[in-house]
Design goal:
Layout lengths: L3 H11 L5 H9 L4 E4 L3 H7 L1 E2 L3 E2 L5 H5 L17 E5 L3 H12 L5 E6 H6 L4 E2 L2
Parallel strand pairs: 1-3, 1-4, 4-5
Antiparallel strand pairs: 2-6
Organism: Sulfitobacter porphyrae
Protein name: Rhodanese-like domain-containing protein
């Protein structure tokens, strides 16, 4: 039987992590799609990355699968650059592993939103 730690360890082994400063630079350059995988209540409390797509982790499979027409988010491309953020990095890693399992090839965990905000990354209201 697998534990939550087992799932998280596997995700952290396969989903690359990027330093917040590098992610902010990538955002400023207009590179990639930024996705906040927290639920709407958490985003409402703290805000999110400016222009980030808001896709709760529980919906990631539906939003990432073009066959799920009523749910699919066309900003998500299997070969596109996707940068995931959450509260502390764990949910982003797990969502990234799910995307990899679905054939996404360029998924990066940029950690937790508090780090983004502290580093001066652009934000918007939740």
């Amino acid at each position: 039987m697998k534990s939550a730690k087992d799932y998280l360890d596997e995700a952290n082994e396969t989903v690359p992590k990027m330093a917040v400063a590098d992610a902010i630079a990538r955002h400023a350059a207009g590179g990639g799609v930024f996705v906040d995988v927290r639920d709407s209540a958490d985003i409402a409390k703290s805000g999110t990355i400016k222009g980030a797509h808001r896709i709760p982790r529980g919906m990631i499979e539906f939003r990432a699968d073009p066959a799920m027409e009523q749910f699919y988010n066309p900003a998500l491309k299997q070969d596109g650059e996707i940068y995931l953020i959450c509260g502390a990095g764990g949910q982003a890693a797990l969502a990234g592993k799910t995307l990899q399992n679905m054939g996404y090839t360029n998924v990066t965990n940029i950690g937790g939103f508090p780090g983004w905000k502290e580093a001066g990354g652009p934000t918007e209201e939740g």
